Prior knowledge:
It is built from nine helices and 15 strands. It is an alpha/beta fold. It has one domain: Aldolase class I (TIM Barrel, Alpha-Beta Barrel). The strands form four sheets. An eight-stranded parallel barrel has the order 1-2-5-7-10-11-12-13, surrounded by eight helices. Helix 1 (29-42) packs parallel to helix 8 (261-274), helix 2 runs parallel beside helix 3 (111-121) and helix 3 runs parallel beside helix 4 (144-156). It is globular and about 55 Å long.
Amino acid sequence: MSQGKTIITCAVTGGGAYTDKMKAVPVTPEQIADECFAAARAGAAVCHIHVRDIHTGAASMERAYYREVVERIRAGKTDLVINLTTGMGARYIPSPDAPLEPAPGSTLTTPEIRVQHVLDLKPEICSLDIGTMNFGAHAVLNTPTHVSRMATLVREAGVKPELEVFDIGHIDQARRMIANGLIDGPPFFQICLGVAGGAPATAETMLAMKSQLPADAHWGGFGISAASFPMVAQCVLLGGHVRVGLEDNLYLARGELAPGNAALVERAVDIVHLLGGEVASPAEARDILGLNTQTKEQAGVVFV
């Protein structure tokens, strides 16, 4: 196991369909920001953020919601590292009788639209999904051209991409992007396991994917649902960082819904400590990842 400290990322809400089991999942910008604060108090150094429609709970790309969440966090008494998603806008569902035409539910849009909130708000990190894949019942299209354009835009904005890889082939694609100068080093990978259509959440898969990463890479990982906490342990044992949160897993134990993101973070902290590790603070996470520290004044925050 690495002797370095473990960064805990909390993915507080995600973009999955809102159901009756998700009463603890935050929806409004205020709720999302409050869940980030709770996760930070519990030990998270980074919060990975999606936004949702405030009326329906459905996934949203509304830039005003992102702005409110980010401004609330920056105005709060925390130095939490903000990580905004760029995963939205990739879903494609072909119409049954005309597959070149999108069916209802498709969100596929341009790279520029997918990263505009990142360019506007300049978080320290944003996610960057590397590969095209089946994702549950639909497909997500992250073509090399689109992902390369997104990588270029966020690099020019001074934002570090978190390279989300769901299978070994995605790591190969990311390495090509690094070699072509699209991603500044050292890169930061997130190994995402257990999604239907991606690599399974097993110890063997985690080890295999970790073995394919560039030698200088920082990396973390997670498993979804019942694999969440086992994959926390696997990441710590292999020297990686970890991610938990209601985006990935709604349960503390079989049949026991988590009351919020903080409880999931607390469990991850316990696992790190039980395995002899230490949890990184936000400042330590910035040092580890080489982030460009940005003061609240530089970010243009209005204090309230």
